Amino acid sequence: MLLGQSVRNGVVEVDHHGAVAVWGRTGLEYWGGDIDRRYYSRSAAKPFQLAAALSSGVVLSAQERAIGASSHGGFPTHLAYVRKILNAAGLAESALQTPASWPNHLSARDLLIAHGETLPRPIYNNCSGKHAVWLAACVAAGWDTATYLDTLHPLQLKIREVMSDVSDSDVGPSGVDGCGAPVWQISTKSLSRAFFRLGNDPTFSDVWIAMHTYPALTSGNGRIDQQVATVLPAAAKMGAEACLGVAISGSYGIGVKCWDGSMRGLESGILGTLNALGMEAASKSITEGTETRQVVLGGGRPQGTVVPAVRLATNRHAT
């Protein structure tokens, strides 16, 4: 299915293909594309990884939960919460097994360098919040912290259980995510079902509330998932290679995947989906507030745009 087209000076340069699924109270209500094709859930899994960690008994504030579900930008506020979680668990930064990296956001990296930082560090990795919460969960449950990334570690087994439950699917076999953690498989259909649970099942209310209340901690200002959670009564989480889950409270769970891994294709997919669902005002507000890749530049000036092209089939009685 076509998610969007990149148009430069009136000529279509790129077609972005993908899949969209919308899960509601009657089951699968709208869809387009190959919604059963499997791929890795990447960071779109973080709300459910957080839920699994919380079941260990670890106690976190709403802000700390938001960081636990985050792909953060590496700004001082993000890093402060990561350190707070580790300190409360009696752990040093050296317990983190995230790859050493610079912050995702270039201005956060520039800020560190301006203050004398010369090397990438594990805490600057965009997944350090998730890893800090995992380590805190291990301490709370009495699990080994040195092996917390092993697929057969009790925490990772719990994550697999939660992922299988919310998606109603077999999520194995696992792969290795960019941060070194086990990553499980999903489809766009099962992603939409999982995010419906996130927004409508009280079991996940602590996760949803944190992500919706503090979307700039979970993502960062100007990113598409942050804007969706700001404009709508929703929690949203984007994953690498262009997948996105949206949990609208009392309404829908939405899954979007752009097959070429393009974030601008993903953005056009969710904007087009909201338009198709009659949420044009929300789509417009998201476009205006996002550091979007929807504008096509040439010579430093706008020469075109990425035009959403989502067309959804419907079957309100599907399950």
Question: What does this entry look like structurally?
Answer:
The chain has helices at residues 46-54, 62-68, 76-88, 106-114, 128-141, 154-167, 188-200, 205-213, 215-218, 224-231, 263-276, 280-289, and strands at residues 2-8, 11-24, 27-32, 38-40, 175-176, 182-183, 185-187, 234-239, 243-248, 253-258, 295-298, 301-308, 313-314. By secondary structure, it is of the alpha+beta class. It has a domain at 2-55 and 151-314: Beta-lactamase. The strands form 3 sheets. Strands 1, 2, 3, 8, 9, 10, 11, 12 and 13 form a 9-stranded antiparallel β-sheet that branches. A two-stranded antiparallel ribbon has the order 4-7. A two-stranded antiparallel sheet has the order 5-6. The longest helix has 14 residues, at 128-141. It starts with a strand and ends in a 5-residue tail after the last strand.
